Amino acid sequence: MKFDSPATTNPIDRLKVVGQPIHRIDGQLKTTGRAMYAYEWHDPMIPYAYGYPVCSAIAKGVVKSIDASAAKKAPGVAAVVTTLDDGNLGKGKFNTVKLFGGDQIRHYHQAIAVVVAETFEQARAAAALVQVDYVEDKGVYDLKEAMKTAVMPDKSKKPDSGVGDFDTAFRTAPVTIDETYTTPDQSHAMMEPHASIAAWDGDEVTLWTSSQMIDWWRSDLATTLGVEKEKIHLMSPFIGGGFGGKLYLRADAVLAALGARAARRPVKVALPRPLMINNTTHRPATIQRIRIGAERDGKIVAIAHESWNGDQSGGRLEEAVGQTRLLYAGANRMTAMRLATLDLPEGNDMRAPGEAPGMMALEIAIDEVAEKLGMDPVSFRIANDTQVDPEKPERPFSQRDLVGCLKLGAERFGWSNRPEVGSRREGKWMIGMGIAAAFRNNLVLPSGARVILDKDGVVTVETDMTDIGTGSYTIIAQTAAEMMGLGIDKVAVKLGDSRFPVSSGSGGQFGANSSTSGVYAACIKLREAIAQKLGFNSEDTIFDNGEVRSGNRSVPLAQAAGPEGLVGEDTMEWGDLTKTHQQSTFGAHFVEVGVDAATGETRIRRMLAVCAAGRILNPITARSQVIGAMTMGAGGALSEELAVDTRRGFFVNHDLAGYEVPVHADIPRQEVIFMEETDPMSSPMKAKGVGELGICGVSAAIANALYNATGIRVRDYPIMLDKLIEGLPDVA
Ligand code: MOS
User: Fold this and answer.
1) Ligand 1 within 6 A of 507 CB?
2) Taking 80 as the threshold, does the pLDDT of residue 731 lie above it?
3) Could you read off the pLDDT of 501-512 as tens digits, one per residue?
4) Is the CB of 689 under 6 A from ligand 1?
5) Confidence tier at 155 by pLDDT (50, 70, 90)
6) Tally of CB atoms within 10 A around 656
7) How many domains does the chain have?
8) CA R_g for the chain
9) Does residue 539 have an active-site annotation?
10) Are 448 and 438 found together in one domain?
C-alpha cells in the first residue's frame, strides 16, 4: 500500500482499542523475568561457550603482533580469534570504522580479539593473557583544537543553508545576541549491554542479539562476514533499551559469529559495561554559535546557527542546526555545519540525533533574546511562531500547535508565578522556573507485516519490528485488533525475527507510526481476503465484535478463517506528503528547579511537558516515552558528560559509576499532557512519534530555570557545581 494522499475516515478512527490506555501486553513477561533478552536464550541442552572481547589499549596505530599462546593454553579455552588471523573482514554500510579491523586501530577499545572458553570467567581470565604489541600513532582528540581545521563534508546532505541577507539584518537589528554553546560527548547508557549469541549450522548462522534494526544488521553482518544475507538469521524479540546505540551492527555480534565458527559451538558474547562506551558509538560533542537579531517589538529578523562536531574520518555531521531552520519565523537566516576529524570512538545517532543537542543551545539562546527584549519567553516564542517552513513559505506544516502547547503549559504550570531572576528563596534554596520549546521532525520508513487469522479467530501479527522498551508489541496489537474488530486478547504479536516481513525498525521516533501503518496495510489485505472468501463486497464489509458483517449476513471471524486460516501481507510505502508538507511534532517543557545557594546543588522540583504529536496510539506507552526522554534530558542538563582524555584519546568515565545518568531520586513528579490532535498527512494511523520529541528542548528548559533561580547563565553542558559556584550569593 502506498500512502500518497491524506487519510480519510478509516477503521482506526473508531478508537475502540487504538488510543486506549492499554497496559503493555509484554509487561508481565518482563516483570516476571520471562522475557528473553539476547544473552538469556539459554537452552540447557546446548553447550554454549563464552566469548570475551580483547579491545585495543591504544586509540590510533597499528597492531604489530598478537601473542595468544598463553591464552590458548589457559583452562577451558576453546578458541582465540584475533584481528590478525581474520583481518579481511568487510565493513558494514552503517559502520564508519571496521568492527574487527585487521591491524589498523582507529579508536580506543576497538575489538582486536575474542577468547572463547567453557565459562565466562575462564574466557575473561584468558583474555587477560593475550599479549599485544602496538605501534602507536599520534591522534587528534580535542574538538576545540580540531574545529579550527574542520571542513564541509563531501556528503549529499547540504550542510549550509541561507535565506535573505543575514549579515545586514543582524548588524542593523536593535537587539542582538551572539553566543557560543557547547554540548559534551554523551553515552546511550542503555540498561541492557550489547550482547549476542551466535550458532552456526553449516554455512548458516543464527544470532540472538539486541538490535533496533533487524534488516540493517542482517545486511551489515553479511557484508562484514562475507556471508550471504539469506544465510543469516537474526532474533531480537526483547531489547533493554537502545537509544540509537543499537541502530547499527556492533562488535558483539561479529565476535560471537567469529568465535562460534572457530569453536564450532554456540557462543555468547556480551560487551562488559567498561568496554561498551569506547567500543561502541556515542553522541558527539558540539560547539555551536548562535546569533539572533530582533526588533524591539519582539520579532526575530535575523537568525544564524553554526555547529561544529568531530568524528572519525568518513564519519558524520551531528545535525545540530536542523531545528533552527524550521522553528521560528524570521526573514534573514543562515545555518552551517562543519566536521572535524577526530580519532575518538565513532560518533553516531543517539536519541534525537542533532536535534537534541541543537535544541539544548537554541532554546537557551531564545531565552537570552527574550530577556534582552524584556519579554516573557513564552510570549516571545508565540510572537515568532510560523505555520510554514520559513525557508520555503509555500510549504506548510501539516500540523503545528506549538502555540497551543505553550499556552496550555503556561496555564497548568502556573507560569504567571515565575519569579524575577534570582529573587525567590525558600531557606537555602533559590527557586527558578524555565521553559523551552520541544520540536522534532516526524520521519517515516517503509514497514511490512503479515497478519494471520486462524481457526480460533485469533490474529497473529508477524513483523521484524523491534520493541526497544517503547511499547511496539502493544500498539501493534491495538492496531490489528482495531482493524479486525477484535479485542486485544484475540491478537498475538511476534516481533524481532528476520524471517518476518521487513519493518521500519525502531529509531528516529518513526517506529510507532511506520510499523503500525505497515500492520494497517497488512490488515486491509486480510480483510479483503476474508470478504472475498465469504463472497462479501469488501466496500461495505464491517469487522466488529469478532464478526464480519455485510448487509444482513454476519459470520464469526473464527468461522470465516476456516480450518486453514487466512493471511494478509503488505508493506506500507510512503509518497510525497512529507515533501509537500513539513511534518513535525511539537511541545513545550516547563521546569522548576531549586539551587542550593551555598553549594550549587541543583534539584529539579517539577516538570511538565505538553505535546502535540498527532494521534496518540496509547497514552500509557506514549507518556512513558516522554517522561523517559525528559529524564534523559535532565541527565544531559545536569550530569552526563563523557570526559575525553585528550592525550590518549579515550573516554575516561567509561562505566555507570563515572558516567552519571539520573536516578529516581533525581527526578521529581513529571506530568505529560497530549493535545487532542490527528494528522491525516502522517499516515492512516494519523499518528506521529513522541520518543524523541520529549528530549528535544528539555535540557534547555532546565538551564533556563537555573538562570531564573540564580542569575547565572551557563552555556556549557552539563551544568555542574563548578560552573555555578563562583556566582552563588552564599559563597563567601
Ligand atoms: Mo534513534 S537515535 O534513531 O534510536
Assistant:
1) yes
2) no
3) 999 999 999 999
4) no
5) low
6) 15
7) 3
8) 27
9) no
10) no
374 within some domain: no
> Ligand 1, atom 4: nearest CA belongs to which residue?
244
Is there a contact between 385 and 407 (Cβ–Cβ < 8 Å)? no
Q: Both 454 and 562 in a single domain?
A: yes
Look at residue 86 in the predicted model and tell me its pLDDT: 75
Amino acid at 72: K
478 domain-assigned: yes
Of 279, 300, 329, the domain-final residue:
279
Distances from the Cα of 40 to the Cαs of 272, 638, 713, in angstroms? Answer: 15, 34, 47
DSSP 220-242: HHHHHHT--GGGEEEE----S--
- The secondary structure of 122-149 as a DSSP string is HHHHHHTT-EEEEEEPP----HHHHGGG
Kindly report, residue by residue over 365-401, the tens digit of the pLDDT. Answer: 999 999 999 999 999 999 999 999 999 999 999 999 9
- Which residues is 200 bridged to in the sheet? 205
Judge if the beta carbon of residue 347 lies within 6 A of ligand 1. Answer: no
Q: To which residue does cell 580506543 refer?
A: 108
Query: Residue 281: pLDDT above 70?
Result: yes
Closest atom of ligand 1 to CA, residue 246: 4
Identity of residue 705: A
Strands 584-596 and 602-612: antiparallel
Return the best residue to mutate from 190, 283, 349 for the ligand 1 pocket (most ligand atoms within 8 A of CB). 349
Question: What pLDDT does residue 156 have?
Answer: 56
Residues 125, 27: one domain? no
Instruction: Identify the residue with better confidence: 68 or 537.
Output: 68
Check if 351 has its Cβ closer than 6 Å to any atom of ligand 1. yes
Give 283 Cα–ligand 1 centroid separation in angstroms.
Answer: 11
Q: Which of 187, 246, 281, 351 to mutate to test the pocket of ligand 1 (most atoms within 8 A of CB)?
A: 351
Q: Of 672, 585, 609, give the one whose Cα is nearest residue 400.
A: 585
Q: Do 637 and 703 fall within a single domain?
A: yes
Pick the last residue of a domain from 553, 577, 601.
577
How open is the CA angle 100-157-352, to the nearest 5 degrees? Answer: 70
Domain containing 132 equals 44-138+188-279
Assign residue 611 the CATH number of its domain: 3.30.365.10
Q: Residue 352 CA: which ligand 1 atom is closest? A: 2
Euclidean distance between CA atoms 178 and 170, whole angstroms: 10
Burial category of 329 from C-beta neighbours within 10 Å (exposed 0-12, middle 13-18, buried 19 and up): middle
526 plus 635 within the same structural domain: no
